[in-house]
What we know:
The chain has helices at 2-12, 22-34, 44-48, 103-122, 200-210, 251-271, 294-306, 320-326, 350-365, and strands spanning 38-41, 55-59, 68-71, 86-87, 93-94, 129-133, 156-162, 168-173, 175-184, 214-217, 220-229, 239-248, 275-284, 287-288, 311-314, 330-335, 347-348. The protein is an alpha+beta fold. The chain folds into two domains: 2-173 and 286-365, 3-Layer(aba) Sandwich (Aminopeptidase); 175-284, 2-Layer Sandwich (Alpha-Beta Plaits).
Amino acid sequence: xxxxxxxxxxxxxxxxxxxxxxxxxxxxxxxxxxxxxxxxxxxxxxxxxxxxxxxxxxxxxxxxxxxxxxxxxxxxxxxxxxxxxxxxxxxxxxxxxxxxxxxxxxxxxxxxxxxxxxxxxxxxxxxxxxxxxxxxxxxxxxxxxxxxxxxxxxxxxxxxxxxxxxxxxxxxxxxxxxxxxxxxxxxxxxxxxxxxxxxxxxxxxxxxxxxxxxxxxxxxxxxxxxxxxxxxxxxxxxxxxxxxxxxxxxxxxxxxxxxxxxxxxxxxxxxxxxxxxxxxxxxxxxxxxxxxxxxxxxxxxxxxxxxxxxxxxxxxxxxxxxxxxxxxxxxxxxxxxxxxxxxxxxxxxxxxxxxxxxxxxxxxxxxxx
Length: 369
């Protein structure tokens, strides 16, 4: 556990915000090679505009079974410069309060490294293990969307990137659709000739008032997240720009709600004499791993072996597993001791990290398919 803690603290001390993972990738590659694993970095950096590509690893096994893929992402959200892990008297690990801790997702990486180290020390039989440490996961899985999937033989994956107690895992995650809408009116002097203008912000406000934000139906969320527009207090605004997102475990439901949002903006803008341009993109696509699939059953057996209650459920957050599923890799997103993520209150617990190491070892040493 001392080594596990030291590894976690050392890795969190490396700044690795999204698209700037170069130093972290180099350090991780060196650690993999020291463990006797093959390591390879792809060319995704050029495609995503980052400093690092995705990092792959492979550890041969002596069990005649197909490989399992283990994954955890290299990047963190901001504020993430100058992170330091501090072990508190209550057994939690936090930052100094000015940055995130980076347990999302250094916890997953430290667990994987420690599990591989213990395998090497014990000589215990295990199946082949493939590794993928994506860049820019916090940008809607950007790095793993450009991964070299032809390099990966595994059809089952465990992605260590979930909050909650050890034993929790997500088998389904949503489609997330981002949208950008521009309402275009007509500028005029607000004091001398307001009637000559078409108020873009007012038209946009009328539309937003009609959009069913929040949870318009169970399992679907709609949010208008940002509004900007106008030039000066004495000018009728000619432009108002709106951004937002829609997410659901049902891809079709997301698309249907987007069409509704677009229709509302078009109708309200046209009623005011304004025009609308609207565009959207699906950042990630929904997937569901069946509860009776081998990757789920293995997880449940591993938890049972260790006396850890398993809790498999859906989540409305995305991860690299969304991209893995698109390429035929079934998987679970596994809790690995990250709490209050994406905030300066983020924390983890060394005892949970240790639990997760044992869980990963149970997954890769099991002799059944």
